[in-house]
Amino acid sequence: MNKNKTISLLLACAALAAAGCGSRAREALDSLEKDRFLVKTEKAEMRPLEEYILLTGSVRALDEATLYPRAAGKLLRNLLKEGDPVRKDEAVALVERDEVGVVYEPAPVPSTLSGVVGRVYQDTGANVTPQTPIALVVDQSKVRVEVDVPEKYIGKVFRDQAARIKVDAFPDRYFNGRVYRVSPVVDARSRSTVVEVLLDNADGRLKSGMFAEVRLIVASRGSAVSVPSGAVLRDNGSAWVFVPAGEAARRVPVKTGIATAEYTQVEGVKAGDEVITFGLYGLKDGSKIKVH
Protein backbone atom coordinates (compact mmCIF):
# COMPACT_ATOMS: atom_id res chain seq x y z
CA MET A 1 0.00 0.00 0.00
CA ASN A 2 1.52 3.31 -0.98
CA LYS A 3 1.90 6.25 1.32
CA ASN A 4 -1.03 8.30 -0.07
CA LYS A 5 -3.47 5.39 0.30
CA THR A 6 -2.30 4.85 3.87
CA ILE A 7 -2.94 8.52 4.78
CA SER A 8 -6.39 8.45 3.15
CA LEU A 9 -7.31 5.32 5.09
CA LEU A 10 -6.18 6.87 8.38
CA LEU A 11 -8.20 10.06 7.70
CA ALA A 12 -11.28 8.02 6.87
CA CYS A 13 -10.96 6.06 10.10
CA ALA A 14 -10.55 9.29 12.08
CA ALA A 15 -13.63 10.76 10.41
CA LEU A 16 -15.70 7.69 11.26
CA ALA A 17 -14.50 7.78 14.86
CA ALA A 18 -15.31 11.49 15.10
CA ALA A 19 -18.73 10.90 13.60
CA GLY A 20 -19.36 8.18 16.15
CA CYS A 21 -18.33 10.44 19.03
CA GLY A 22 -20.44 13.29 17.64
CA SER A 23 -23.44 11.02 17.34
CA ARG A 24 -23.07 9.87 20.95
CA ALA A 25 -22.70 13.46 22.16
CA ARG A 26 -25.78 14.50 20.21
CA GLU A 27 -27.74 11.63 21.68
CA ALA A 28 -26.63 12.63 25.15
CA LEU A 29 -27.61 16.25 24.50
CA ASP A 30 -30.98 15.24 23.09
CA SER A 31 -31.55 13.06 26.13
CA LEU A 32 -30.67 15.95 28.41
CA GLU A 33 -33.06 18.40 26.65
CA LYS A 34 -35.95 15.95 26.79
CA ASP A 35 -35.37 15.21 30.44
CA ARG A 36 -34.79 18.76 31.71
CA PHE A 37 -37.13 21.76 31.60
CA LEU A 38 -35.80 25.25 30.91
CA VAL A 39 -37.66 27.54 33.33
CA LYS A 40 -37.76 31.10 34.60
CA THR A 41 -38.63 32.20 38.10
CA GLU A 42 -39.87 35.27 39.99
CA LYS A 43 -40.09 36.01 43.68
CA ALA A 44 -43.35 36.05 45.60
CA GLU A 45 -43.81 39.58 46.94
CA MET A 46 -46.00 41.62 49.26
CA ARG A 47 -48.22 43.77 47.03
CA PRO A 48 -51.42 45.81 47.36
CA LEU A 49 -54.12 44.00 45.40
CA GLU A 50 -57.52 44.97 44.05
CA GLU A 51 -59.94 42.60 42.38
CA TYR A 52 -62.21 44.52 40.04
CA ILE A 53 -64.80 44.33 37.28
CA LEU A 54 -63.54 46.17 34.19
CA LEU A 55 -66.20 48.13 32.27
CA THR A 56 -66.46 51.13 29.95
CA GLY A 57 -68.79 54.11 29.91
CA SER A 58 -69.10 57.84 29.26
CA VAL A 59 -68.59 60.80 31.56
CA ARG A 60 -71.57 63.08 32.09
CA ALA A 61 -72.16 66.07 34.33
CA LEU A 62 -74.19 65.21 37.39
CA ASP A 63 -76.62 68.00 36.51
CA GLU A 64 -77.21 69.32 33.02
CA ALA A 65 -80.09 71.13 31.38
CA THR A 66 -81.05 72.05 27.84
CA LEU A 67 -82.61 75.53 27.75
CA TYR A 68 -85.58 76.47 25.55
CA PRO A 69 -87.26 79.86 24.88
CA ARG A 70 -90.63 80.59 26.39
CA ALA A 71 -91.98 82.20 23.24
CA ALA A 72 -91.51 81.98 19.48
CA GLY A 73 -89.54 84.62 17.61
CA LYS A 74 -86.03 85.40 16.43
CA LEU A 75 -82.90 84.97 18.49
CA LEU A 76 -81.82 88.55 19.18
CA ARG A 77 -78.43 87.53 20.60
CA ASN A 78 -76.62 85.04 22.78
CA LEU A 79 -75.53 86.71 26.01
CA LEU A 80 -73.05 84.00 26.97
CA LYS A 81 -70.67 81.80 25.00
CA GLU A 82 -69.51 78.23 25.51
CA GLY A 83 -67.39 77.88 28.65
CA ASP A 84 -68.84 80.93 30.40
CA PRO A 85 -70.05 80.45 33.99
CA VAL A 86 -73.74 80.99 34.56
CA ARG A 87 -75.95 81.33 37.64
CA LYS A 88 -79.40 79.90 38.07
CA ASP A 89 -82.06 82.26 36.57
CA GLU A 90 -79.39 84.26 34.69
CA ALA A 91 -80.30 84.89 31.03
CA VAL A 92 -78.18 83.11 28.44
CA ALA A 93 -79.92 84.60 25.38
CA LEU A 94 -82.62 87.09 24.32
CA VAL A 95 -85.51 86.32 21.95
CA GLU A 96 -87.34 89.01 19.99
CA ARG A 97 -90.97 88.09 19.70
CA ASP A 98 -92.27 88.90 16.21
CA GLU A 99 -96.03 89.26 16.57
CA VAL A 100 -97.30 91.79 14.03
CA GLY A 101 -98.50 95.10 15.48
CA VAL A 102 -97.28 94.35 18.99
CA VAL A 103 -94.01 95.51 20.56
CA TYR A 104 -92.53 93.37 23.30
CA GLU A 105 -89.44 93.63 25.39
CA PRO A 106 -86.88 90.95 24.38
CA ALA A 107 -87.72 87.73 26.20
CA PRO A 108 -84.84 86.25 28.21
CA VAL A 109 -83.94 82.55 28.12
CA PRO A 110 -82.98 81.87 31.76
CA SER A 111 -80.73 79.09 33.03
CA THR A 112 -82.43 76.56 35.25
CA LEU A 113 -79.22 75.71 37.16
CA SER A 114 -75.81 77.12 38.05
CA GLY A 115 -72.81 75.85 36.11
CA VAL A 116 -71.14 76.60 32.79
CA VAL A 117 -72.49 76.93 29.27
CA GLY A 118 -71.55 73.66 27.62
CA ARG A 119 -72.98 74.37 24.19
CA VAL A 120 -74.73 77.14 22.26
CA TYR A 121 -77.08 75.73 19.64
CA GLN A 122 -78.40 78.76 17.70
CA ASP A 123 -76.95 81.79 15.93
CA THR A 124 -78.26 85.32 16.10
CA GLY A 125 -81.30 85.79 13.84
CA ALA A 126 -82.40 82.15 13.94
CA ASN A 127 -86.14 81.51 14.09
CA VAL A 128 -86.96 79.77 17.35
CA THR A 129 -89.97 78.20 19.03
CA PRO A 130 -90.53 76.79 22.54
CA GLN A 131 -89.25 73.46 21.13
CA THR A 132 -85.96 74.92 19.83
CA PRO A 133 -82.92 74.23 22.04
CA ILE A 134 -80.94 77.38 22.76
CA ALA A 135 -78.09 76.25 25.03
CA LEU A 136 -76.85 73.42 27.22
CA VAL A 137 -75.82 74.25 30.79
CA VAL A 138 -73.83 71.75 32.85
CA ASP A 139 -72.72 71.62 36.46
CA GLN A 140 -69.46 69.64 36.28
CA SER A 141 -68.36 70.08 39.90
CA LYS A 142 -69.51 66.47 40.17
CA VAL A 143 -69.66 64.02 37.27
CA ARG A 144 -71.14 60.58 36.78
CA VAL A 145 -70.13 57.64 34.65
CA GLU A 146 -72.85 55.28 33.47
CA VAL A 147 -71.90 51.66 32.76
CA ASP A 148 -73.79 48.50 31.86
CA VAL A 149 -72.95 45.66 34.26
CA PRO A 150 -73.51 42.12 32.92
CA GLU A 151 -76.04 40.05 34.84
CA LYS A 152 -73.42 37.60 36.17
CA TYR A 153 -71.67 40.41 38.09
CA ILE A 154 -74.73 42.10 39.60
CA GLY A 155 -74.34 40.27 42.92
CA LYS A 156 -70.94 41.93 43.34
CA VAL A 157 -72.14 45.51 42.80
CA PHE A 158 -73.63 47.68 45.55
CA ARG A 159 -74.22 51.31 46.47
CA ASP A 160 -71.14 53.21 47.78
CA GLN A 161 -68.81 50.61 46.24
CA ALA A 162 -65.36 52.04 45.42
CA ALA A 163 -64.49 52.60 41.76
CA ARG A 164 -61.45 53.78 39.79
CA ILE A 165 -61.91 55.80 36.61
CA LYS A 166 -59.38 56.36 33.82
CA VAL A 167 -59.79 58.58 30.75
CA ASP A 168 -57.61 58.89 27.65
CA ALA A 169 -56.81 62.54 28.42
CA PHE A 170 -54.98 61.51 31.63
CA PRO A 171 -53.66 57.97 30.94
CA ASP A 172 -51.40 57.86 34.02
CA ARG A 173 -54.03 58.88 36.56
CA TYR A 174 -56.97 57.14 38.20
CA PHE A 175 -59.92 59.17 39.53
CA ASN A 176 -61.65 57.78 42.61
CA GLY A 177 -65.42 57.48 42.72
CA ARG A 178 -68.32 55.64 44.36
CA VAL A 179 -71.32 53.77 43.00
CA TYR A 180 -74.32 55.97 43.75
CA ARG A 181 -77.06 54.33 41.70
CA VAL A 182 -77.80 50.71 40.79
CA SER A 183 -80.79 50.11 38.56
CA PRO A 184 -83.29 47.70 40.15
CA VAL A 185 -84.03 45.98 36.82
CA VAL A 186 -82.10 43.96 34.25
CA ASP A 187 -82.49 44.82 30.57
CA ALA A 188 -84.08 41.77 28.91
CA ARG A 189 -82.16 42.27 25.66
CA SER A 190 -78.64 43.02 26.91
CA ARG A 191 -78.90 41.03 30.16
CA SER A 192 -77.23 43.90 32.01
CA THR A 193 -78.17 46.56 34.53
CA VAL A 194 -77.27 50.25 34.59
CA VAL A 195 -74.88 51.42 37.29
CA GLU A 196 -73.74 55.01 37.81
CA VAL A 197 -70.49 56.06 39.50
CA LEU A 198 -70.22 59.52 41.05
CA LEU A 199 -66.94 61.48 41.18
CA ASP A 200 -65.89 64.85 42.58
CA ASN A 201 -64.59 67.04 39.79
CA ALA A 202 -63.68 70.30 41.51
CA ASP A 203 -60.68 70.82 39.22
CA GLY A 204 -62.85 70.35 36.13
CA ARG A 205 -60.54 67.85 34.46
CA LEU A 206 -63.31 65.41 33.61
CA LYS A 207 -65.54 66.64 30.79
CA SER A 208 -68.96 65.49 29.69
CA GLY A 209 -68.67 63.09 26.76
CA MET A 210 -65.27 61.64 27.67
CA PHE A 211 -64.83 57.90 27.19
CA ALA A 212 -64.02 56.24 30.52
CA GLU A 213 -62.56 52.93 31.71
CA VAL A 214 -64.26 51.93 34.95
CA ARG A 215 -62.96 49.50 37.57
CA LEU A 216 -65.55 48.49 40.15
CA ILE A 217 -63.55 47.26 43.13
CA VAL A 218 -64.87 43.88 44.28
CA ALA A 219 -62.20 43.17 46.92
CA SER A 220 -58.93 44.77 48.05
CA ARG A 221 -55.98 44.13 50.33
CA GLY A 222 -53.47 46.75 51.35
CA SER A 223 -50.67 44.17 51.31
CA ALA A 224 -50.71 40.46 50.51
CA VAL A 225 -48.26 37.76 49.42
CA SER A 226 -48.78 37.38 45.70
CA VAL A 227 -47.24 35.75 42.65
CA PRO A 228 -47.69 36.34 38.91
CA SER A 229 -51.10 34.95 37.99
CA GLY A 230 -49.59 32.77 35.25
CA ALA A 231 -47.61 30.86 37.88
CA VAL A 232 -50.77 29.52 39.55
CA LEU A 233 -52.06 26.24 38.09
CA ARG A 234 -55.53 24.86 38.82
CA ASP A 235 -57.41 21.61 38.39
CA ASN A 236 -60.60 20.25 39.99
CA GLY A 237 -60.77 23.06 42.51
CA SER A 238 -57.14 22.72 43.61
CA ALA A 239 -54.38 25.27 43.01
CA TRP A 240 -50.61 24.96 43.16
CA VAL A 241 -47.33 26.54 42.10
CA PHE A 242 -43.95 25.03 41.27
CA VAL A 243 -40.83 26.17 43.10
CA PRO A 244 -37.21 25.27 42.30
CA ALA A 245 -35.66 22.78 44.73
CA GLY A 246 -32.07 22.36 43.64
CA GLU A 247 -32.21 21.00 40.10
CA ALA A 248 -35.80 19.77 40.42
CA ALA A 249 -39.26 21.32 40.50
CA ARG A 250 -41.37 20.91 43.61
CA ARG A 251 -45.15 21.22 43.52
CA VAL A 252 -46.54 23.38 46.35
CA PRO A 253 -50.32 23.48 47.03
CA VAL A 254 -51.62 27.01 47.62
CA LYS A 255 -54.84 28.73 48.59
CA THR A 256 -55.71 31.69 46.38
CA GLY A 257 -57.38 34.94 47.31
CA ILE A 258 -57.70 38.17 45.35
CA ALA A 259 -56.82 37.60 41.71
CA THR A 260 -56.11 40.13 38.98
CA ALA A 261 -54.82 39.75 35.44
CA GLU A 262 -51.30 40.41 36.75
CA TYR A 263 -51.07 38.92 40.24
CA THR A 264 -52.82 36.43 42.51
CA GLN A 265 -52.82 36.36 46.30
CA VAL A 266 -51.56 33.00 47.62
CA GLU A 267 -51.12 31.18 50.91
CA GLY A 268 -48.53 28.40 50.92
CA VAL A 269 -45.42 30.32 49.89
CA LYS A 270 -43.67 33.21 51.64
CA ALA A 271 -42.56 36.58 50.35
CA GLY A 272 -39.13 36.12 48.80
CA ASP A 273 -39.70 32.52 47.70
CA GLU A 274 -38.91 31.81 44.06
CA VAL A 275 -41.77 30.42 41.97
CA ILE A 276 -41.57 29.11 38.43
CA THR A 277 -43.34 31.40 35.97
CA PHE A 278 -42.13 30.06 32.59
CA GLY A 279 -41.69 26.51 31.29
CA LEU A 280 -44.69 25.12 33.15
CA TYR A 281 -46.14 23.08 30.28
CA GLY A 282 -45.69 19.39 31.10
CA LEU A 283 -43.86 20.17 34.35
CA LYS A 284 -44.43 17.66 37.15
CA ASP A 285 -43.40 17.30 40.75
CA GLY A 286 -39.74 16.19 40.69
CA SER A 287 -39.08 17.17 37.06
CA LYS A 288 -35.48 18.19 36.40
CA ILE A 289 -35.12 21.88 35.63
CA LYS A 290 -32.57 24.43 34.54
CA VAL A 291 -33.30 28.00 35.64
CA HIS A 292 -32.65 30.41 32.81
Quickly give the structural class: mainly beta
Q: In CATH terms, what is the fold-level topology of the largest domain?
A: Elongation Factor Tu (Ef-tu), domain 3
Poorly predicted ranges:
1-10
Morphology call:
rod-shaped
Secondary-structure element order, as H and E? HEEEEEEEEEEEEEEEEEEEE
> In which order are the strands of the major sheet placed?
2-9-12-11-10-13
Key traits:
Elongation Factor Tu (Ef-tu), domain 3, six-stranded antiparallel β-barrel, 3 domains, rod-shaped, disordered N terminus
Describe it.
The chain has 292 residues and is mostly beta strands. 11% of the residues lie in helices and 51% in strands. It has one helix and 20 strands. Strands 2-9-12-11-10-13 form a six-stranded antiparallel barrel. Strand 14 and strand 15 form a beta hairpin. It is rod-shaped. It starts with a helix and ends with a strand. The relative contact order is 0.20. Residues 1-10 have low confidence and may be disordered.
Write the layout of secondary structure elements.
Elements: H1 3-35, E1 36-43, E2 45-67, E3 73-78, E4 85-86, E5 91-96, E6 107-110, E7 115-120, E8 127-128, E9 135-150, E10 162-167, E11 175-182, E12 192-200, E13 211-228, E14 233-235, E15 238-245, E16 248-253, E17 255-259, E18 263-267, E19 274-278, E20 288-291
Parallel strand pairs: 1-20
Antiparallel strand pairs: 1-19, 2-9, 2-13, 3-5, 3-8, 4-7, 5-6, 7-9, 9-12, 10-11, 10-13, 11-12, 13-18, 14-15, 15-16, 17-18
